[in-house]
């Protein structure tokens, strides 16, 4: 399983037809996605007995569910956004907005020295950097290029020298690992509301991903939405696989629910 996924995520970008790729990414919301994510979505349909146009449509639908549905087009502009404005309006951060101080104080508990946060699948969460303890550094990793640009524009304007966003896919596992390993000091990994998107493109990837990266950090904070944003109905998933994985290979530190989001904090053993 591990090698199969590693092979797929390493070699897919050499296979996809450029014309098809260009057609899929013609839409603004997909135009700056990391190529590997587009390829991962395409492979779900490339062998279907249907027309190329249909396959392109199906690929766009899947990309819509994994990426675009969280970020409305108004955030995909290369311009400066005020932190409060965007955090209150983006679907991933709006319900969290008023709880940032509480959430971060729980996650950063007992981290006394300056630490670096790797926010994987960051969305616009980099705009919450001013809620971090003084002296912390931030690296946001995000596949939607427009969000990477707007976070960097914000850091630049606010002169936050220790914060940056980078344009990578979480399927570029080796690059992500290299990036984390390269940094010194205490490291904290955020994976807020992103594992479900990874599972949509590659079932079973989250587990492999966690097994590879948790040991590179001092703490990992994962979150899941507990309520549907649109219908407001409670999700019935219990994430048993994750708790099994943590009890087998890692150490559970804390878990709590705030603002329709469940947080699970753990570390290497
Ligand atoms: C539900 S949003 C959560 C955003 C942020 N973590 C938060 O909770 O505020 C999921 C984010 O993960 C990003 N994402 C999904 N799959 C990704 C991948 N393979 N690589 C990088 N980013 C990804 C999406 O573009 C989107 O911005």
Description:
The chain contains eleven helices and seven strands. It has a seven-stranded mixed sheet. 33% of the residues are buried. 39% of the residues lie in helices and 18% in strands. It folds into two domains: 2-70; 73-268, Vaccinia Virus protein VP39 (Rossmann fold, 3-Layer(aba) Sandwich). It has helices at residues 2-11, 18-24, 35-42, 52-66, 83-89, 100-107, 145-157, 173-182, 195-201, 205-213, 240-249, and strands at residues 115-120, 137-142, 163-167, 186-192, 219-225, 250-258, 261-268. It is an alpha/beta fold. It is globular. S-adenosylmethionine binds next to helix 9. S-adenosylmethionine (SAM) binds at residues 37, 66-67, 70-71, 92-93, 121-123, 125, 142-144, 169-171, 192-194, 197-198.
Summarize the structure.
The protein has helices spanning 2-11, 18-24, 35-42, 52-66, 83-89, 100-107, 145-157, 173-182, 195-201, 205-213, 240-249; strands spanning 115-120, 137-142, 163-167, 186-192, 219-225, 250-258, 261-268. It is of the alpha/beta class and 269 residues long. The protein folds into 2 domains: 2-70; 73-268, Rossmann fold, CATH 3.40.50.
């Amino acid at each position: 399983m591990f090698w199969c996924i590693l092979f797929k995520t390493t070699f897919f970008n050499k296979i996809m037809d450029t014309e098809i790729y260009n057609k899929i990414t013609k839409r603004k919301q997909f135009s700056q996605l990391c190529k590997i994510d587009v390829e991962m979505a395409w492979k779900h349909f490339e062998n279907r007995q249907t027309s190329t146009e249909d396959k392109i449509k199906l690929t766009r639908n899947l990309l819509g569910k994994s990426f675009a549905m969280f970020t409305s087009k108004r955030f995909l502009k290369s311009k400066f956004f005020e932190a409060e404005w965007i955090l209150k309006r983006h679907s991933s951060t709006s319900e969290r907005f008023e709880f940032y101080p509480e959430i971060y104080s729980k996650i950063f508990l007992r981290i006394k020295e300056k630490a670096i946060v790797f926010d994987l699948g960051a969305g616009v969460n980099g705009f919450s950097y001013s809620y971090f303890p003084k002296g912390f550094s931030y690296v946001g990793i995000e596949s939607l290029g427009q969000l990477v640009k707007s976070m960097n524009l914000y850091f630049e304007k606010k002169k936050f020298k220790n914060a940056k966003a980078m344009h990578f896919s979480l399927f570029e596992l080796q690059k992500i690992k290299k990036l984390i390993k390269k940094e010194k000091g205490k490291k904290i990994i955020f994976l807020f509301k992103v594992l479900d998107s990874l599972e949509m493109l590659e079932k079973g990837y989250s587990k492999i991903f966690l097994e590879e990266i948790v040991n590179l950090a001092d703490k990992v904070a994962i979150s899941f939405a507990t309520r549907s944003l649109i219908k407001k109905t409670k999700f019935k998933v219990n994430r048993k696989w994750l708790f099994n994985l943590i009890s087998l290979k890692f150490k559970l530190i804390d878990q709590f629910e705030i603002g329709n989001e469940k947080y699970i904090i753990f570390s290497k053993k």
